[in-house]
Prior knowledge:
CATH superfamily: Aldolase class I
Strand order of the largest sheet: 3-4-5-8-9-10-11-12
Helix content: 25-40%
Shape: globular
CATH architecture: Alpha-Beta Barrel
CATH class: Alpha Beta
Number of domains: 1
Number of helices: 11
Number of strands: 12
Amino acid sequence: xxxxxxxxxxxxxxxxxxxxxxxxxxxxxxxxxxxxxxxxxxxxxxxxxxxxxxxxxxxxxxxxxxxxxxxxxxxxxxxxxxxxxxxxxxxxxxxxxxxxxxxxxxxxxxxxxxxxxxxxxxxxxxxxxxxxxxxxxxxxxxxxxxxxxxxxxxxxxxxxxxxxxxxxxxxxxxxxxxxxxxxxxxxxxxxxxxxxxxxxxxxxxxxxxxxxxxxxxxxxxxxxxxxxxxxxxxxxxxxxxxxxxxxxxxxxxxxxxxxxxxxxxxxxxxxxxxxxxxxxxxxxxxxxxxxxxxxxxxxxxxxxxxxxxxxxxxxxxxxxxxxxxxxxxxxxxxxxxxxxxxxxxxxxxxxxxxxxxxxxxxxxxxxxxxxxxx
Length: 374
């Protein structure tokens, strides 16, 4: 029986060659929002391992939308050109499809890299900026953000639209909006961070209004033949916060507006969250959203084993599995999973002789091997 994990998946006119996805992972290594040699190595190295879909890191649609001053942005021609260089390299050496995650960090922006503590930059730091959010409620000890006006919302919406146009020019296969982890879209959804009393706050319908506006604006620009998804936090893991029932309702609204998949994560709205972590601990969230919202879903979170990933897809709990930190640890996870499950991932010709079937063989006499032709 063929592996479920290595079956193709069609989203609109885009077909993923397998169900393995590399999650967006911040690298804190950009210069003025532009990709550097680190990104060429990082994303290029992950791509040649043959996952079905590879995400860039969360990419800010405006300078203060970045998580830190060292995160990727897509708001200048220089940002676009630097990323184009990385994309050209990947397209030349890999069949992996490419996805962009557009983001705005909102009240959790303007921080130092995690290896330096991940704290808020002090206000007098030359790289710091004033944060924006739905309400004047800071994240933990972070300074309270300035509540956004309708003019601010319009400016952010315009920034998402402009970044979407850049993604079209860059030729990304898939686009995702970051609506999780306490960043701007999620901060409007969660009652822990959105305590507005106008039409963009209050009940769940009001708190969903601005995130849905952003989605509609991007969907109107993003090509009809290409998939658009949203990463969500299924629950805040905090009493009184956003919960799974809310997420189901939000995803149903997204589906009505042309959303093609949901990337199901959780948490990030409050430092008081109490998360029960274990293997595949967020998969039940993805499973329920798939069943009740009727959308393809991506399961993410402590998925580290080929048999575990295979079972998630085979049992219909999710349509894709996304790996982040484990893929950094094992950037050849797709090859290793294929060896166990009988799949056939892509090998660049330069690496084809590493295939187990060719070990010990005279590669140059036998030819380029089972999966060597790129």
